[in-house]
Specification:
By secondary structure, the protein is of the alpha+beta class. The protein is built from 9 helices and 25 strands. Strands 3, 4, 5, 10, 13, 14, 21, 24 and 25 form a 9-stranded mixed sheet that branches. A 4-stranded antiparallel sheet has the order 15-18-16-17. A 4-stranded mixed sheet has the order 19-20-22-23.
């Protein structure tokens, strides 16, 4: 039976998706985050920042305690969408993002993108200078190796584009201009990660950075260094992790009902009745898919705010949420408010706005299937390769495929790990290991 990913990160049937297509708007990014969660679970990592950098955009999200962070509303393409979705923050920074100099002489990257057609200048299809071209100029990509279905990349075209569109207007060498392009792109992605961490009361140093997408593994270490993150994970299926996420995601349904009332005078019996009805709807949806009662999981939650606020916080409801009327829920809300915004008020009254129940069934395949999920088996050459990592000049690095790295043994940069759908840059001073499933674990020195 067909299953389709929803923005919430849960799967649904094709029939239900057709009834509510707006619930699918962020299905691609949500699939990537679910794949990252599954990889993290297999590796024993519960706190992850996901960095999904493709050709057009970069999506960042947070996994805390093994759970994907979600939101009940968001904006997609400038339009407000009041539906459950993975809390993804997206910016226009990808491998195809155009590098350009504005009227004031400042170097800019994106949000315009060359996409796949015509693509970056190095694709040989008449594209402009992009982030990918900068990587190729600096030796982070090997032009003679197939990548993403292309037989190779045109290094001369990349160099011409960076020279004409960036280096000459700024009066820089081609290599320094390329380094500047990557610096601007990294700064934008650093800001994006701060939106989902620091601005929500989370310290990025408490997380590992999981970099994926076609371009993410090229930037993972440099972004981690900016944020003080000590560990970078590059999964085996980095270039196709969203597809893997579809395989390991769970079937799930979200039901909600408005229920406005001050917590100081909460009608607990009425709230219980609504939650029971919402759970019943979730049970019916899962039962229709053949999910047994024992395989069903449910999570109740409430949207709560201080009276007079225009925004709510979704607070999970545990088994004893209704003890003491609304007092326990009030305490949980105040703790969540302080964690996110750094302040709360014991004097201001709070009110419940919406009750929610998430119903979940088993995954299509369990996490053990990740061990057999490989993006490619083509062996890469093992040779010396010149790369630019900073303005000091080129250094000699090793270029190889993942299969050339020792299993569970240390390897250190400078190193370029070339794959069929993603390339990993390991700068000098960074060491790592390859685990049994092909994931790379990079350890950064404390800054």
């Amino acid at each position: 039976r067909w299953r389709i990913m929803q923005s919430s990160g849960a799967l649904t049937t094709a029939a239900r998706a057709a009834e509510n297509p707006a619930a699918l708007l962020l299905s691609g990014p949500a699939g990537g985050v679910q794949g990252a969660r599954a990889v993290g679970a297999r590796m024993g990592l519960a706190n992850l920042i996901t960095l999904d950098m493709g050709g057009t955009s970069c999506d960042v999200a947070l996994i805390t305690g093994g759970e994907v962070e979600t939101t009940q509303s968001g904006n997609v393409g400038g339009y407000p969408v009041a539906l459950p979705m993975v809390a993804v923050h997206t910016i226009g920074a990808g491998g195809g993002s155009v590098a350009w100099v504005d009227g004031g002489g400042a170097l800019r990257v994106g949000p315009a993108s060359m996409g796949a057609a015509p693509g970056p200048a190095c694709y040989g299809r008449g594209g402009r200078a992009t982030v990918t071209d900068a990587h190729l100029v600096l030796g982070h990509l090997a032009g003679d190796l197939p990548l993403g279905g292309l037989p190779g990349l045109d290094a001369a075209a990349a160099r011409r584009a960076i020279s004409q569109e960036v280096a000459r207007p700024l009066g820089l060498s081609v290599e320094r201009a390329a380094l500047g392009v990557l610096e601007v792109a990294d700064a934008a992605m650093e800001r994006a990660i701060r939106v989902v961490t620091v601005e929500k009361g989370r310290d990025p140093r408490d997380y590992a950075l999981l970099a994926f997408g076609g371009a993410g593994p090229l930037h993972g270490v440099s972004i981690a260094r900016r944020l003080g993150i000590r560990r970078v994970i590059v999964p085996r299926a980095a270039g196709v992790l969203s597809a893997l996420g579809l395989v390991v995601a769970r079937a799930g349904y979200d039901h909600s009902r408005s229920f406005v009332g001050r917590l100081s005078a909460l009608d607990v019996a009425a709230a219980r009745a609504i939650l029971a009805a919402l759970r019943g709807r979730g049970e019916a949806a899962l039962r229709a898919e053949g999910v047994s009662e024992g395989a069903m999981r449910f999570q109740a939650a409430a949207d709560v705010r201080y009276v007079g606020q225009s925004h709510e916080i979704t607070v999970p409801l545990d088994a004893g949420w209704d003890q003491g009327g609304g007092a326990r829920l009030r305490a949980a809300f105040e703790a969540a408010h302080r964690a996110r915004y750094g302040h709360g008020s014991a004097d201001d009254d709070a009110e419940l706005v919406t009750l929610r129940v998430h119903a979940e069934g088993p995954a299509l395949r369990d996490g053990a299937s990740l061990a057999a999920f490989a993006a490619g088996t083509t062996r890469r050459p093992d040779r010396r390769h010149a790369v630019w990592l900073d303005p000091a000049g080129p250094v000699e690095a090793r270029l190889c495929g993942r299969e050339g790295l020792p299993l569970d043994g240390p390897f250190c940069g400078p190193l370029v790990v070339a794959g069929e759908e993603a390339t990993i840059l390991v700068p000098a001073g960074v060491c790592g290991r390859r685990d049994a499933e092909g994931n790379l674990v990079l350890e950064l020195e404390a800054s």
